[in-house]
Amino acid sequence: MKRKIMMTSLALVMCAALTSPVLADSKSACVAIGADNTESQLETVYDYFGIKQGDVEETVVTNEDEREYLDGLVSLDKIGTLALSSVYVQETQSGGIEIESHNIDWVTDDMYEAALTTAGITNAEVVVAAYTPVSGTGALTGIYKAYEVATGIELDEEAKATAVEEVVVTGELQDMIGDDAVNIINSLKSEIEQTKTMDDDEIRALILETAEKYDTELTDQQVEDILDLVNKFNELNMDPDTFLKLVEAGQQTEGFFEKVQGFFTNIGDFFSGLTN
User: Fold this and answer.
1) In this structure, is residue 191 part of a structural domain?
2) Is 140 a domain residue?
3) pLDDT tens readout for residues 162-210
């Protein structure tokens, strides 16, 4: 009996030790709902968020809000005429940006993460969801709005617009060359300290050199699109090391839950051995 009590107590202590830092790290949260969802569709979305409607503050994003940043950058079929994607944003004190998406079929989690760092978001847990598959381009507006409501921090408008363009350029590039599109753009973002002092021809050369590292050939138009994006990165007040630090933080959390599961498996085996 004493052994069972000891085992139960230890398990509770270990659970508390693992979960307490996560709770302590949490700050404000907000949900931005696509205005054209029905009540039943919202139920599906909140299931993806893992919370109940009313648990956190809620704001609404319309298709007009989404078009504020997307008009002229992306085709109408990707913007759509309805605001369906919704987001849950939980500000955190550390750990970088963690993205989870459901029914988003064009914008990838890596693309969201990279764009949010450009927009000035450094630590947050973000869930993007829709009741049916959508491109996910409009969700950026929802993330901005939810983050600003949750934190009271107003993001720089130029940075937000640049981040949206980054998603569009990266997405179109990804359609042509695959996942290395994100790697190429991220690599160039880490070179801001250099590119700020370069002329356009030097940046073009760096773009081609970077693409070559990923065994990728770019068309002239792709180079020009990326050049335009890099020049916009250069105009933002971004710390050249910020993106690399956030990537490193994300890499440190990869496989965390698998490690926790393995840890408890080992604990169970240990106590099983004691009992035997």
Assistant:
1) yes
2) yes
3) 999 999 999 999 999 998 999 999 999 999 999 999 999 999 999 999 9
For residue 85, give its domain range: 2-259
Residue type, 41: Q
**H helix or E strand, kind and range, residue 103:** strand 97-104
Question: Which pair of tokens denotes residue 179?
Answer: 């996942």
269 falls within a domain: no
142 occurs within a structural domain: yes
Q: Can you tell me the distance from the alpha carbon of 82 to that of 101, in angstroms, rounded to the nearest whole number? A: 19
36: CB partners within 8 A, 6+ apart: 63, 82, 83, 84
What does DSSP assign to residue 123? S
Q: Helix, strand or coil for residue 273?
A: helix
pLDDT in tens, 200-217: 999 999 999 999 999 999
**Number of folded domains that form the chain:** 1
